[in-house]
Amino acid sequence: MRRVLQISTLLMAFLFFGREVALAQRNDGVFRNEAFSQNYNPADTLGRDTTDVLFSFGQYFRGLRHKEELDPAKLFAGATFMPGSQQIYNRQYWKLPLVYGSIGAGVGLGIYYNHRYKETGNIADKHRRTLCWAGAGLAYWCMLMDGNANYAISDDDIPGSAGKATVYSILFPGLGQIYNGEYWKIPLYYTGLLWTGSYIYRWNMNYRRYRRIYNEITMEDSQYTGKIQASTALYYRNVSRRYRDYFIVGFAVMYLLQVIDANVFAFMRNFEVDDNISLKVGPAVLPPGNLYATGSSSFNAPTVGLKFGLTF
Predict the structure, then answer these.
(1) Which residue has the higher pLDDT, 25 or 69?
(2) Longest dimension (CA), the chain
(3) Is the pTM of this model over 0.85?
């Protein structure tokens, strides 16, 4: 698991800091400053680009007060730490007692049975604790699924929403593909998930077996009489753990791939593709000092050239 955590940390660092590193690449003087410092929105505008802020608590709470529209992805992100907020946004307030009651009952009973199990050591209390906490997790999952399913998309997003497809795939693999109507992809992703999952189970069983054998051999006053030596058990323990971690990473990559697939193909669903391709050529006049055309601000006269427009 240590290798999995290391790889996950590197991936997160790449995602978060990759953009800053790219912007820090050395460019040519004035052009770099001009290209990366321009503000294309008026300073006093109330609207902001969707890339300005990925998630804002102020925007989220304005959405819950129905002062601002929230997309399904942001609503889902907020509901993960504020259970019931999706139902509030969807104006289905009558579901809140069900949400809080089911989750609270599962967590509360789980704590109660866990306390009894620690006092008495009764295995039945341990099983009840596990079932209660599993029930709370299931209620939490159902809350997120219900909030996404009942999200009303605007007319501009019909027949589908990329945000809803993404959330569906996060909550249940393949559901985003069903939402997009791409049923043929489901066997492909499930084959990958089940294949990697089966090897995770297999290598984890081997790892636990050889770890137990190695611990028995190396413990004080060991009564071990098996044929496997300590060095052999140690070798197969490490190998099994390594391959288990590799397949865990593969499973995560396959899971992430089906989420990205659902998002991209839902976003491109309304993209019109036809055979009408045209090329238009015409004169073009660029204003003086245009850095994107000349690469320098020393040109004070307009620049005349040709404009090519490709329509497809």
Answers:
(1) 69
(2) 93
(3) no
